[in-house]
Amino acid sequence: MPSLLLFSDVHTDHGAARSLVEQAAAVDVVVGAGDFCAMGRQLEATIAILRAIETPTVVVPGNAEPVKQLKAACADWPAATVLHGSGTTVEGISFFGVGGGIPVTPFGAWSWDFSEDEARGLLRQCPEDAVLISHAPPYGIADVSSRGEHLGSQAVRETIEAKALPLCVCGHIHASWGVTDVLSDTPVHNAGPAGTVWNLDVPAAHEQ
Fold first, then answer.
1. How many structural domains comprise the chain?
2. Helical H runs in 30-109?
3. pTM beyond 0.85
4. Structural domain for 171, as ranges
5. Least C-beta-crowded within 10 Å: which of 85, 100, 109, 145?
6. C-alpha span between 118 and 128 (Å, rounded)
């Protein structure tokens, strides 16, 4: 049973980044669900710390950093693969990722956001057996704000409901960090920056 280190929303917290580097050595795959920086600033400094992770790593951009910026910052991080509307296979596990704020946030021009319809297009090719890495949580699951509002994505929710996904890793809604819930038999975990070790229950065909 492969083990994953799940995290999100480091937001330039270099102490959290160093802790993730230490934790990464004990797992098979590291999964980062976006927001490595704050409002587009200090991305390179945060990735410079995470770059010490040698365990295979799969990440998506958050709404704080566009995918082009994240790919440029990760160019010298050999272990890392950046996904957005795309997938990969790592250690025999299928992953599919979508980044950004979904739906569009109220934060203004600095936030890298997508409408629900745009997100549906990005998620259309998600395989049915993939671990879904989405910066935004699905609507109604691990998405409750500090004001008690559900701020997740309908498009992400629809994708999970339509496919037999083994896991959805998300972040974005800080008040729900650490929350795990289940949607259509798919565990959904809002990871947060502290890091969570997750033993992935996948069919034997996907294990190495």
1. 1
2. 43-50, 67-73
3. yes
4. 3-206
5. 109
6. 20
